[in-house]
């Protein structure tokens, strides 16, 4: 019940979050899209895991430490912890916006609320940090960081909604088993260099003929579930038509984001007029 009430509150924020989201996407899209290597790095393609959540624990931990140090009267140490929190919050924001610019609809709306709250918290922490650099302690510097902490916790909840409830940046194949036995495709005619959608039992695949060989990956893009058969062949990869993730055809390895997870790969054999596939990756 509490969750449903919070979700209704978040859904009601579209009147400001939608236009602000468009602005954020324009700004960060202009920053990241011309440099795909930077965006890939910030998405976490090299890491095989989204980078943003791997960084966010640092500022949250630093702010908890600062809170404890403030309560025990250790002003200098609390200031240092807040400084660490601010630096890592900025790094987390850089990575988070790389994921955010590929969001749409409700996920973008929630992402805008999440990032806006974090920006407000960052302002509170920055002011507190600057005040703490002064010689004279002030109760306001502690109150500002405490309010910032409460906002961070609220915003982290919204970030959790994005991942655990709306499935943002999760692997679309996390629970996909099966496909490990040779199974016939429902198509026999695969033209050269053209992605073809085909079924093999319960699995939906994209199959591509490259010269004399056939390559097959699962058709559902690991990023946000678009159909790879509607994408295009780029060199040795297939590019998803939705947000441009690329997977190597010969093994499903993700080579360009925003996807950070590999695509299930199938080996293919042709015999007696039939095409059969069998999954090669193990999860
Ligand atoms: S669904 Fe986003 S890149 Fe494929």
Q: SSE string, helix = H, strand = E?
A: HHHHHHHEEEEEEEEEE
N-to-C terminal Cα separation, in Å? 35 Å
Instruction: Bin the helical content.
Output: 40-55%
Placed side by side, the strands forming the largest sheet appear as 1-10-9-4-3-2
Please tell me the total number of domains: 2
Number of DSSP strand runs: 10
CATH fold description of the largest domain: Four Helix Bundle (Hemerythrin (Met), subunit A)
Give a short account of the largest sheet: 6 strands, antiparallel
Short description:
The protein is of the alpha+beta class and 283 residues long.
Question: Could you characterize what this model shows?
Answer:
The protein has helices spanning 2-11, 14-32, 36-43, 51-71, 75-100, 105-132, 139-165; strands at residues 183-184, 196-200, 203-210, 213-218, 232-234, 237-239, 246-248, 254-256, 265-271, 274-279. It is α+β, with helices and mostly antiparallel strands and 283 residues long. It folds into 2 domains: 2-165, Four Helix Bundle (Hemerythrin (Met), subunit A) (Up-down Bundle); 183-279, Rieske [2Fe-2S] iron-sulphur domain (Rieske Iron-sulfur Protein, 3-layer Sandwich), CATH 2.102.10. A 6-stranded antiparallel β-sheet has the order 1-10-9-4-3-2, with no helix packed on it. The protein has a 4-stranded antiparallel β-sheet with strand order 5-6-7-8. A hairpin with a 2-residue loop joins strand 2 (196-200) and strand 3. Helix 4 packs antiparallel against helix 7 and helix 5 packs antiparallel against helix 6. The longest helix has 28 residues, at 105-132. The radius of gyration is 23 Å and the shape is elongated. 39% of the residues are buried.
